[in-house]
Amino acid sequence: MSRPANKRQENSKISRELFVLTYGALVAQLCKDYEQDEDVNRHLDRMGHNIGIRLVEDFLARSAVRKCRSYSETVGMIAQVAFKLYLGITPTVSCSNTKGNEFSLILDKNPLVDFVEELPAGRSSLCYCSLLCGIIRGALEMVHLAAEVTFIQDSLKGDSVTEIGIAFLKKLEDKKPKRNNLK
């Protein structure tokens, strides 16, 4: 017997809200553990990177997407499929340069900050959502794309939107196992 669609959506919303609340508690604990915002940002990015590496398999299994042939297709897939699947939103994509290797994901609403009104006092250089940058970077590495992923605008810092910049650096080579030649 299958679940009704509205029950699945409700469970997804509950899971997303639980994740957002848990994430807030994690950031608060990291702020207690580390005095410098840069240390917290680095730790969140590293955690995100590890999540991204593991998330690719789940994403590919759940979405049944085909291989992307361009950076533009890849960013479109991240925005239209991955963000929708895991966070329930679809960011706007814009290309930032003529070479076609720099893009922005613009989030009108960032679900990770649903329960956050402002950054803690004295934490002006904290990048609360660094986890997202790490996730994107880690996932791209797993599909053999090196990228620099950074926050350009942050709604928690007074910007009207949250903007994540993705600059593709290069395609990584598939490492093929060396063959043992028995003589």
From TrEMBL:
<dbReference type="GO" id="GO:0030008">
    <property type="term" value="C:TRAPP complex"/>
</dbReference>
<keyword id="KW-0449">Lipoprotein</keyword>
<dbReference type="GO" id="GO:0048193">
    <property type="term" value="P:Golgi vesicle transport"/>
</dbReference>
<comment type="function">
    <text>May play a role in vesicular transport from endoplasmic reticulum to Golgi.</text>
</comment>
<dbReference type="InterPro" id="IPR016721">
    <property type="entry name" value="Bet3"/>
</dbReference>
<keyword id="KW-0333">Golgi apparatus</keyword>
<protein>
    <recommendedName>
        <fullName>Trafficking protein particle complex subunit</fullName>
    </recommendedName>
</protein>
<dbReference type="InterPro" id="IPR007194">
    <property type="entry name" value="TRAPP_component"/>
</dbReference>
<dbReference type="InterPro" id="IPR024096">
    <property type="entry name" value="NO_sig/Golgi_transp_ligand-bd"/>
</dbReference>
<keyword id="KW-0931">ER-Golgi transport</keyword>
<dbReference type="Pfam" id="PF04051">
    <property type="entry name" value="TRAPP"/>
</dbReference>
<comment type="similarity">
    <text>Belongs to the TRAPP small subunits family. BET3 subfamily.</text>
</comment>
<dbReference type="GO" id="GO:0005783">
    <property type="term" value="C:endoplasmic reticulum"/>
</dbReference>
<keyword id="KW-0564">Palmitate</keyword>
<keyword id="KW-0256">Endoplasmic reticulum</keyword>
<keyword id="KW-0813">Transport</keyword>
<comment type="subunit">
    <text>Homodimer. Component of the multisubunit TRAPP (transport protein particle) complex, which includes at least TRAPPC2, TRAPPC2L, TRAPPC3, TRAPPC3L, TRAPPC4, TRAPPC5, TRAPPC8, TRAPPC9, TRAPPC10, TRAPPC11 and TRAPPC12.</text>
</comment>
<dbReference type="GO" id="GO:0005794">
    <property type="term" value="C:Golgi apparatus"/>
</dbReference>
